[in-house]
Amino acid sequence: MPPKRTAAAVSSSLRPQARQPAASRLGFLTVGQTARILGVSASTLRLWESVGLIAPVRSNGRYRLYSPELLKVLKRIKYLREVQHLNVPGIKRELGPATGPRAAKEPKPLGPKLQRLRARAGFPLVDAAKRAGISTGFLSSVERGQANASVATLQRLAAAYGTTVMDLFQAPKGRDRLVRPADRRVLEMHSGVRMEMLSSGATMLQSMLFRVAPLSGSDGSYSHQGEEFIYILSGKLEMWLDELECFVLNEGDGFWFESTLGHRWFNPGKVDAVLLWINTPPTF
Length: 284
Hints:
Multidrug-efflux Transporter Regulator, Chain: A, Domain 2; 12 strands; 6-stranded antiparallel sheet
């Protein structure tokens, strides 16, 4: 038998707006409501805001509020990101005038650097794309700054060109024993992955600090010579080896594997995964 309802409960059910958030009554959506409608995480919305794609209004309590007009812009951004595979500069060009006053410092574009590496290796566009397992059109878009390559794609391109992803950091030639946080070389991709070099001039290892946004990752498998060690500083990381073994690494976990195994990784959590990643020899 269903539980009895009091008169107050019945009266409350006749006033549905009284139970809605104040933002909804004013025609705005909260960050949680907006994320559910779009099928993305709240952290993704904050990431799009931090790179200057959107600028939601703020309530008196400083909560983010999203108007119906901004929701249309967000749907367009999601389409350009997931279907057209455009990076932030490409999305901004498609959107036209800025959707808000906030702006963020753009990562240095990788396209020109990749184009120079391909030219130095002597590969036509078609051959380079085939070696990396991507389409010629996509590689052309990456080199022109209209699309963003994943970590896996960057590694395969670098290997095809006879170099490493580390060469994309444009690190100085010196051998500094001490590297302070402000002096770290950074490689940041709009796919939600940020890599910081922790050492300069080391010849037998690569040491990097990775920050992986929620629901972001390598977007594909890659392999190379050597061995790797990962230590999870915070968050969690899902690691697949040869598509046969899956490991979920949590804060405080250490993980070792042979680099020759095909490996791909992904952050299944709701917060950034921050990890120390060491390769030896420096083949990544």
